[in-house]
Amino acid sequence: MSPNDEHVRSTPPSWFDWLDDRLGLRAARHLAEKKTVPVHRHSIWYYFGGMTLFLFTIQVSTGILLLLYYRPSADTAFESVEFIMTQVRFGWLVRSIHNWSANLMIAALFIHMFSVFFLRAYRSPREITWLSGAFLLFLSLAFGFSGYLLPWNTLSFFATKVGTEVAGVVPVAGQFMVRFLRGGDEVTGATLTRFYGFHVAILPAITTALLTLHLLMVQQHGMSVPESVKEPVKTMKFLPNFLLRDIIGWLTALAALAALAAIFPWDLGVKADPFAPAPAGIRPEWFFMFMFQTLKLLPAKIGFVEGEVLGVLGFSLGGLVLLLVPLIDSRGSKRIAKILAAAGGLVMIYILAMTVAGYLE
Amino acid sequence: MFVVAALFLIGLQGPPSAPVNTCVSCHLEAGDDLAAPIAKVADDVHGKRGFSCVHCHGGDAGEADMDKAMDPRKGFVGKPAPKQIPVICGKCHSNADTMKRFNPGIRVDQEAEYRTSMHGKRLAQGDVKAATCVSCHGNHGIRAVSDPNAPVFPTHVAETCGRCHSDAAYMKPYGIPTDQAAKYKASVHADALFKMQDLSAPTCNDCHGNHGATPPGTASVANVCGTCHARQSELFGAGPHKSAFDTMGVGECLACHGNHEVFRPTDAFIGTGNKAICIKCHNQGEPGYETAATIRQDLLTLSERIAGADSVLERAARAGMEVSRARFELTEANHDLTNARVLIHSFSAPGVEKATGPALAIADKARQAGENALKEWTFRRKGLAVSLLVIALAIVSVYLKIRQIEAGS
């Protein structure tokens, strides 16, 4: 808007005009109105990115509320969560939604990642979108791992002990990683404070930066259309058509969260006692179960290498391959695409099978 | 050169072989019963520490000639007579200098204690049926007391004592009952020992002593029980029953609890009901009768309130409500109930109420917490229903809006 436009106006500026003068809202609205989403038989998968983002905002808002009461030390953590669950008005709801939403978010994230993988939406020019998304998946797992310890209950204490021990088998850097994660040789109050720092400051800061990049890239390149969809591709407007459909999904997720929180409020457990023997049936959260189960099933020695070392190195290599998928599939070779799709399918089946096996044991 | 070769050849010779134990070689050759001890010695606690036949039986194990090896002038005693056994064992076990080479903490007064026991006294009187060291510990396959296979390990003691004491024919000359082991096995102590594997639970020797085994008399039975049940014993000693029981010559604890067949006590033991023990002596109208009735009622009221609170908290917990704090606090009431059951031994109703009074308040508070949790649960369900309705309406509205927009375009 030019300065002369001010004189043309006959009526006083509305609040939108006032903001538009300062923020350029019309330009943003124009951009949003111009944005379209392809419509085809695979369009359903587009909604899982938005769903993950919605659940992430719930995580942030409920997390901030929990911060008001949570006290991160071995002496006070459990008691403060107990206080939230029993004394704070709707504290039980906030904590239960935070826990359930975390699980649903990671589930949505896995679905989003696998759908992008199988639809090959990572192809040029969306490599950075894929890379930032893969890092966001790792960060979400780190959120889950660090958040699990915060209530300082028996199960979380021993699961963290086992989980951090796994890092110790990494050749050369293993012991350093264990000490870095634990803030010492053992899981103690220092570990709790450290995990709290990771969970509420370090991880959110990195996530915010990566998420901004990821969303900018989505905006920059638009939604990818699978190769199998023939031209011309039908489209729908992002605003309001796609967004309204997104909102239906979000409302459904909100209803599911409310029901889960009310019917199955997240258990508090028993306060951790570092001197007590480890209870039977320690297991990590479901999204780490496939790794936990694999490490359990591996023999002590495979050739001349320790089974656990090989397992950890295997998972690290898997993570690296995940990051490099756009590079591996960059030449447009149908053979490589088929191999990748088959490998992805096998990995998905493996994850599901190991997770189920872990819970059946 | 020859000297070097000779020295080299000497160096090639193996270590000198162990001297032949002629006791072993001859007994193995003789076979049957005479050979049987040899196999047992391999697991014997003494055998493992380098003791051999001659340390107990005397003689010369290095002598190939049987007569010379078993020459009484070389201390050969052969199969020791019962009377010799405590002396033979005591040669080492009563000698602190010898024993501390193997176990500096071990007692060396077993033989002296044995002499004071009923077994020791009978043996001294010439009763060869009286138990000696080997009757309980075995002879050639002796195991350490801490060995779970030892006949004197806590879980085997009743069986070991019962080998003689449950044998009616063997015990006939003594005119004492032979049902102690069977009764013990039905007792609360045996439950703790055998079912709960609590090795600190008493077995025969914990009340009767082991080396100094003697039946405790009515005057000392409270001291025996009091070694574990110290508080009860102390309360009983300060209470009104002590002097009355002493006058009547009634064994203090066993008057109500029995001796070998000590049942798990229940609240029904006290009071004026059919199963109450108090009414064996106290009649209606007596102060003791009233006290028993009051104590019983106090215990009953507290038990019921705790059970009621526990049931409400259980329902709340099963509904997913967080009531662990209230449940933890309720354990305090349970501790007080246990304390009240101990305080019964003071036979004072106000004394028992010191424990039941605060416990009733705790139980009521826990019940209230449980009821509040259940109310909150109902509130949550209603809240959920309202929320789901609002969300459903919002979904329908958005859906209709989409249809409206897309119908227009």
Features:
heterodimer; A: 361 residues; mainly alpha; Cytochrome Bc1 Complex, Chain C; two-stranded antiparallel sheet; two-stranded antiparallel ribbon; 15 helices; 3% strand; globular; B: 409 residues; 22 helices; 0% strand; elongated; disordered N terminus
Give your account of this protein's structure.
The complex is a heterodimer of chains A (361) and B (409). Chain A has helices at residues 5-8, 15-23, 25-34, 47-67, 77-86, 91-118, 127-149, 154-167, 174-182, 189-221, 238-263, 289-297, 307-323, 325-328, 334-360; strands spanning 36-39, 234-237, 301-302, 305-306. With 361 residues, chain A is mainly α. Chain A has a domain at 35-276: Cytochrome Bc1 Complex, Chain C (Up-down Bundle). In chain A, a hairpin with a 2-residue loop joins β3 (301-302) and β4. In chain A, α6 (91-118) crosses α11 (238-263), α8 packs antiparallel against α9 (174-182) and α12 runs antiparallel to α13 (307-323). Chain A is globular and about 75 Å long. The model of chain A has no long low-confidence stretch (mean pLDDT 93). Chain B has 409 residues and is an all-alpha fold. Chain B is built from 22 helices and no strands. In chain B, α2 crosses α3 (32-41) and α20 packs parallel to α22. The model of chain B is unreliable at 1-16 (pLDDT under 50). The chains are: A mainly alpha (361), B mainly alpha (409). Chains A and B meet through α5 and α11 of A and α22 of B.
Quote the CATH topology of one domain in chain A: Cytochrome Bc1 Complex, Chain C
β content of chain B, as a range?
under 5%
Q: Provide the structure class of chain A.
A: mainly alpha
Radius of gyration of chain A: 24 Å
What is the helix/strand order of chain B? HHHHHHHHHHHHHHHHHHHHHH
| Number of DSSP helical runs of chain A | 15
Largest sheet of chain A: 2 strands, antiparallel
How far is the first residue's CA from the last residue's CA of chain A? Answer: 67 Å
Portion of residues within helices of chain B: 55-70%
SS element count, helices of chain B: 22
Uncertain runs of chain B: 1-16
N-C termini distance of chain B: 120 Å
Number of strands of chain B: 0
Kindly provide the name of the CATH class of one domain in chain A: Mainly Alpha
